[in-house]
Amino acid sequence: MHILIATTNPAKLAEIRKGLQTNLENSDILTLDDVTIKGKPAETGKTFEENAKIKAQFYGDQAHVPTIADDGGLMIDALHGEPGVKSRRWPGYEATDEELIDYALEKMQSVPEDERSATLSTCLCFYDPQKKTFLCEQEGIKGYIAQEPSGKETNGYPYRTLFVVKETGKYYDEMSNDHITMNHRLIALKRLVKKIAQ
């Protein structure tokens, strides 16, 4: 079975590829470098699921192979769910990892420690271009926004360096073995793979 992972984020690609190789045997995994794609999808959805479906269908219809895409981000309670679907474009433009970290800390500057709760969420969608059908799974992990970043390399995930996992008290990007069992994207992907296999 050919499956296209539709992402331009190298860290996300590696994560989803690992999850597929672990949970879906006999799958031939393709990346966007393996197919010819014209243009970029307009991520106009108001939810992570809507955007994940838009991306999966855009790339799947052009590549003519089943496609997995995801959309997700950080939702901060004190900021009414921001950045949410804005994620990379939160400041009003396509920001770098460092700019997003600085922007988040600035927005949270006056928020007291006991009101800094947040959730890292993701939605993965599998799209079959022949049947025109979708399978989707969502997952999130609870935590709070730290007063300062962890100092680890962001690797395309700027918010992880600010996010402390409630269950462990560790920065998300500091988890090692815990990360495999608690990674919200891998948890959602495992459930999605079961649906695909059926």
Q: What can you tell me about this protein's structure?
A:
With 198 residues, the protein is α/β, with parallel strands linked by helices. It has 5 helices and 7 strands. The protein has one domain (2-197): Maf protein (Alpha-Beta Complex), CATH 3.90.950.10. α1 (10-23) crosses α5 (184-197). The radius of gyration is 17 Å and the shape is globular. The two termini are 13 Å apart. The mean pLDDT is 92.
Which features characterize this protein?
7 strands, 7-stranded mixed beta sheet, 5 helices, alpha/beta, single chain, globular, 198 residues, Maf protein
Short précis:
This protein is an alpha/beta fold and about 200 residues long.
Secondary-structure map:
Layout lengths: L1 E4 L4 H14 L4 E3 L17 H16 L3 E10 L5 E2 L13 H11 L9 E12 L4 E13 L17 E3 L11 H6 L1 H14 L1
Parallel strand pairs: 1-2, 1-3
Antiparallel strand pairs: 3-4, 3-5, 5-6, 6-7
Helix pairs in contact: 1-5
* Number of beta strands: 7
If classified by CATH, what would the architecture be? Alpha-Beta Complex
**End-to-end span in angstroms?**
13 Å
Strand fraction equals 15-25%
Secondary structure class reads alpha/beta
Number of domains: 1
Element pattern in H and E? EHEHEEHEEEHH
Count of alpha and pi helical runs:
5
CA radius of gyration is 17 Å
Q: What shape does the CA trace take?
A: globular
Mean pLDDT: 92
Give the CATH level 1 class: Alpha Beta
Sheet bearing the most strands, described?
7 strands, mixed
Output the CATH topology: Maf protein
Specify the helix fraction band: 25-40%
Unreliable segments (pLDDT under 50, ≥5 consecutive)? none
